[in-house]
Design the sequence.
């Protein structure tokens, strides 16, 4: 078998066999096939696409390129959640304790962020002493004891995906449905959970800008998960404006903590309840999403979800005082108001541009080697459809480096459009995709 023939075959729009897909993934992972040939193959896949069978085979080949995690020693149905990425997306920080408080094992391996803000692991580093690196035995022990652990992915999980993604990033082949779906699902399948809920974001601050494309991606990922025996459901959520009010790291942690105390932003809490109720259904803890929502609401109201967060932080070596007193979390030396120049209603907030503003202040990484300022970020004071008067505070910029803050206020104002009141009502959830098909909301 030759890589040349595989490139030629896909270039001509023909279907690759399982053996051919395994051959090029194995060869590339081992360094036997050079970047320039895989680049050519990726472009051929990008242009000629893959069918469902090819996409499933690609996912399995990437899973088998490294280690898989056996979570069978964890009692009960293990659940995981994955977001395709957005602005202000601190869902895992609140959702994990919520479902764990309902008795459902939440065994999650997370990554670091590249772009607008940090990933879940970066945010958790705002809490003094909190560890995210554990042996398999430690990870399993913590989940069995308190029903939740969030750790970093090991270097040996899906090494093929790491190499492929780096190459896709520099060859303009990132946004292909099969390549995205296999990248996301390979990591989830290798991580060992029994059931997976996917939060597929769509809108200005999401990777998927078009609703129909988001549904296609969701369908592809759900089919992959269910084809290998994992209960998989996707929820399509709105990312046309940032989720909640906080965009940063420590400030997002604070917002998640407040949400578990019952004081969270409406859209953020609603998304957590929607994703969490689906997790409870898949984990056989609730017979319906409605009953799941009631369970989650109860553990917030009675303090069990907040107490579970304290247990989680303590179990992972963190200082629980940072949770009890959020003033201990990293704080910026400068907090500057951004004021409105006119009056009207917030017609739209470009989430991607707000994310870029947070990145400029130091809240995210330009490259994998960049360092993150955990205190930097933006707290919005207004959301879409809110009334605004001239001189009202639109947002607060949090930063330590004055040089990074230059012109960010102007950039932020340009991202917020003010005008007449919107005629329609904004939607947070567009639909749910499961094994039976699509249900639009």
Sequence:
């Amino acid at each position: 078998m030759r890589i040349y023939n595989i490139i030629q075959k896909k270039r001509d729009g023909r279907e690759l066999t399982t053996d051919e897909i395994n051959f090029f993934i194995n060869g590339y992972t081992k360094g036997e096939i050079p970047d320039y040939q895989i680049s050519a193959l990726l472009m051929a896949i990008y242009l000629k696409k893959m069918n469902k069978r090819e996409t499933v085979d690609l996912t399995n080949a990437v899973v088998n390129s490294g280690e898989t995690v056996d979570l069978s020693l964890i009692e009960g149905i293990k659940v995981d959640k994955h977001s395709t990425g957005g602005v202000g997306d601190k869902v895992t920080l609140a959702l994990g304790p919520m479902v764990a408080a309902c008795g459902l094992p939440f065994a999650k391996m997370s990554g670091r962020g590249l772009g607008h803000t940090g990933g879940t692991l970066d945010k958790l580093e705002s809490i003094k002493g909190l560890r995210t690196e554990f042996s398999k035995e430690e990870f399993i022990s913590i989940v069995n004891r308190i029903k939740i652990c969030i750790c970093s992915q090991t270097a040996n999980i899906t090494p093929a995906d790491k190499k492929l993604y780096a190459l896709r990033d520099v060859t303009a082949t990132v946004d292909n449905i099969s390549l995205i779906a296999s990248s996301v699902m390979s990591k989830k399948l290798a991580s060992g959970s029994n059931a997976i809920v996917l939060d597929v974001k769509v809108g200005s601050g999401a990777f998927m800008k078009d609703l129909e494309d988001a549904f296609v991606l969701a369908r592809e990922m759900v089919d992959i998960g269910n084809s290998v025996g994992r209960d998989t459901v996707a929820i399509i959520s709105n990312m046309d404006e940032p989720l909640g009010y906080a965009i940063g790291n420590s400030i997002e942690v604070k917002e998640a903590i407040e949400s578990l105390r019952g004081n969270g932003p409406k859209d953020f809490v609603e998304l957590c309840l929607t994703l969490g109720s689906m997790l409870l259904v898949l984990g056989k803890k609730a017979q319906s999403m409605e009953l799941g929502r009631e369970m989650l609401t109860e553990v917030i109201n009675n303090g069990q979800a907040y107490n579970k967060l304290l247990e989680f932080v303590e179990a992972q070596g963190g200082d629980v005082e940072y949770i009890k007193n959020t003033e201990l979390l990293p704080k910026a030396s400068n907090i500057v108001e951004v004021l409105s120049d006119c009056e009207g209603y917030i017609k739209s907030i470009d989430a991607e541009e707000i994310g870029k503003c947070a990145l400029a202040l130091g809240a995210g990484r330009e490259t994998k080697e960049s360092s993150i300022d955990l205190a930097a970020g933006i707290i919005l004071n207004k959301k879409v459809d809110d009334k605004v008067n001239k001189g009202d505070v639109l947002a607060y910029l949090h930063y330590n480096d004055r040089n990074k803050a230059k012109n960010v206020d102007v950039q932020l104002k340009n991202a917020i459009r003010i005008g007449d009141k919107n005629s329609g009502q904004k939607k947070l959830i567009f639909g749910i995709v499961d094994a039976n098909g699509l249900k639009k909301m």
